[in-house]
Give the backbone structure.
Amino acid sequence: MTDHNRLTELATRRGFYFPTAGAYGGVAGFYTYGPQGAALKRNLESAWRERFVTREGHMEVDGPTIMPEPVFEASGHLDGFDDTMIECSECETSHRADHLVEDETGIEDAESLGTERIGELVATHEIACPNCGALLVDAPVSEFNLMFGTNIGPGSSAPGYLRPETAQAIFVEFGRLAEYARNQLPFGVGQIGKAYRNEISPRRGIVRVREFTQAELELFVSPETSEPDLASVADVSLTLYPIDEQRSEGREYVEKTVSEAVEEGTIESPWIAYYLGIATEWYERIGVDTDRFRYRQHLPGERAHYAVDCWDAEAELGGNWIEVSGFSTRGNYDLSRHAERSGGSMTVFEPYDEPRTIERPAVDPDMSYLGPEFGDRAPAVVEALEERAAREPEAFDGEEIEIEIDGETHAIPVAVTGFDVIEETIAGENVTPHVIEPSFGVDRVFATVFEHAFRRDTVEGEERTYLELPPELAPTFAGVFPLMDRDGMGERAREITAALRERGFAVEYDDSGSIGRRYRRQDEIGTPVCLTVDYETVEGNGSVTLRDRDSAAQIRVPMSADGLGELGAVLSDTWTRTRSHAASSTFRVCSFRCRICSASCPGANWAGCWSP
RNA sequence: GCGCUGGUGGUCUAGUGGUAUGACAAUGGCCUUCCAAGCCAUUAACCCGGGUUCAAAUCCCGGCCGGCGCACCA
């Protein structure tokens, strides 16, 4: 069995994820997360939220997944909605059928004709494949729909779409969000939610699906004045695959620190560099194998319609490089478009460091003269005067000024124009913020964590599989077992289980079969530690055995008779350990060799082992 | 969407024109003082539709779902 099959089998059998509605034959592109997977995904989202929202001091919103058509007209997503595709049966390349028809026939807006009519036009005009020259007469014309459409309310008068990205739910609320941020740039708004794309060909399990979860951060920055503080990530090393390397013969990765990448211009936007730094630490924290990870810059042709520059985080999964997150500079594309289409304001007032005083020629016409003189043409006269004052103030030097209205020249006494050079104080200006967007495909990050955590080794002659998940992500944090369910061991183990659950740990109690079987069960779903209540616990000093998942090593942890003793603190420390040691997340519970402090620990001096 | 290939208990699988093999898992019991141990029992499957046939899980056609390749991928 290949590793991919093995992972799929594990995911299905142990409840990480599986195809949706299998009872009805399944439906391509939809997966359900089972008990373990839902917990892992939730923990993953929490880790993302902690790092990209909470720790950055950003806000989080939760918008609807369906929005009315105008939103997607503005966002540009609708333009691609009615694309008609035609596939050449000779060379199997796909083309925009409407474009071919427009080019050949001079018809404008062929897109609106529908597939049937376009197919007829292709046939009657004997349009050939631009790639190989074969006639496309019999080639099928199909609609290329990426957005799922629906109707809002009864009837079809209010079309809506399932969002193809979560971001739009943030952009359309920009006005309020800016207000909540007290109109101070930069500010960030995060969102974790579902998005939908009617993919032509869903593939590779949860990697390419039609309903998926995105975790997106939209950072609104001033194009002029906002700058990131790179100090915290300056020394983080990045594996970069820039455009010129992708095009070169060598095709080599470039290893640079964040500060080097910015200073040497490898990454143009310091904001992108900042987030690549943060993301790198985060990916390490959640257990992504950095040797199977890179940042690849988008080639110009790959960029989305909104993107100025984009770097993808890619992970190697099953021998393929998969995009797991994208870091785009979206410019002010989205906000300008929404401002234009909605008529609302999508700007933030940015005061200058010091108010600027400028001298400006202006007019203040005497309407009691212009009104009677020009009648309904008076407003046009005012407009002409204003324009003239701005363009050619010296024209107001004489007694009269000549202006042209509707081809007629009129002389107007300068005295009634109220012309003057006025002094104005300008405190700042309205700017449309630029958007920096780190966007994570949660399902793909999930797939990466799952695959990169997959391990096989041999313990006492028996092969075993386990998931080396960081404690923070593990669906179950601890297993609690009585060595056997007798002589009070079961009761004690159930007490400990309840006490740990009260402290908020996800704990599984298990007294079935043999102890080894129970360890293996937990190994397979990545439970970091297992506690065993044995005779020493109930008849001796009360201590329990604590077993480490990755090394299968065991030590004894003292317990107090009436409570958890040191255990609670030890487990709390285990749980938070990966977060505080983000750069060295391959942390192991005291496997007699703490990777954090590099000290070997015989288990006797427990406290020493846990000191950073 | 095209091409190749596959679909049998929860999982992995054997199999033949006469409704099905085995293993693992699961559940219950016995045993058991720390790594998938042993014994007993139980639960549990031929992707869907149509056709051929006395009879189809098996042969044929179509569909659905998966894998791989191509195309697509905001």
Observations:
- Chain A is about 30% helix and 25% strand.
- The two ends of chain A are 41 Å apart (CA to CA).
- Chain A has a mean pLDDT of 82.
